[in-house]
Predict the structure.
Amino acid sequence: MAVKTLFFAVLLLVASGFLSGSVREADSSTGLSLGCAVGDVLPDGAVVWLRAEAESEVLVRYSRDPDLKVFAATQAVVVKETSDFTATLVLRGLEPATVYHYQGVVVGKEPGPVCKFVTAPRPDSLTDVQFAFGGCTRESFQPFSIMESIRVMTPDFFVFMGDTIYADRDGPASKMEEFWSKYVRNRNDGSMQRLLSETSLYITWDDHEVANNYDSGHPLAPIGQKAFFDYWPIQREPEDPNRLYRSFRWGKAVELFILDARQYRDPAARTMLGEKQKKWLLEEGSLLRLRSLNSFSPRFRFQARARINGAVSARRGERLWVSLLVRESRELSFSRQMYITLLSVKSLAERNSD
């Protein structure tokens, strides 16, 4: 059994030039636009993201058959202007460790292109795992050729570590439509579309989905966060729809904890993660829980979270967050256990350009 991680630090340093306009029109034959994406994959389920023409009904066909001659289908949903005509549809009843092929279908139109992903193995299955992680896709650095490099390595999944757009650069966004347009321009990139069509995602955000180094009280946070959820395949909880922290198993080899290091920041309480998220992580990662899982205990456990720059500058606000990062990392180190932390580390060069 082997676990391979492929680290791609997508550090986009070009700041010049406002990229005006974006291709938002749906394909006339399929009624779809911007390709497909699948995320939050389980042994028996997944979440598919699609975008379709205004007020259309869209569904997903899926099958183990690459030609989809025999398939199951989700119920159709109507895409709404309030989410920029995007939709997430949940696939259920899937088989573990199985390649599935799927396509979006707008009712009354031709089916869309066929995309694919692999489901997670059962928790008691000891299999090899290969995944990639990275972040920071600034639109002015397109084409995202590194995404093609990731795709050809055929990872089981890709962990997107945040800064999936740069809302505050290359023509800063301040209205919902402007945030959506940032996602549209990035999703139009061919290398990005090809990667998303052939693997699955586990996603978190960092600061540039809203504004550089923002805290929870930033006035644009609600807008930026809604746009993020509109454009990524994430399984949301009805009781707490903005919750982003969650965990996933990939067989007996890997357990992945997706953390939110932005939404709950509170300098007064001296926390980056917030008490509720820390309590959840401590309970999920407890030795008692590990013992209760018995043979299902993972060989490797990963924390995935965005963070501030690795080469620390002397800015007063950043010194506070670095201090809290160190303290909370120690609190969450779970003595007598080994965690591997995946960090989207920004270079000092990028920090100096911010």
Q: What stands out?
A: The helical segments are 145-152, 176-187, 190-196, 221-230, 275-284, 287-293, 316-331, 348-353. The CA atoms of residues 21 and 347 lie 29 Å apart. The chain has one domain: 3-12+28-353.
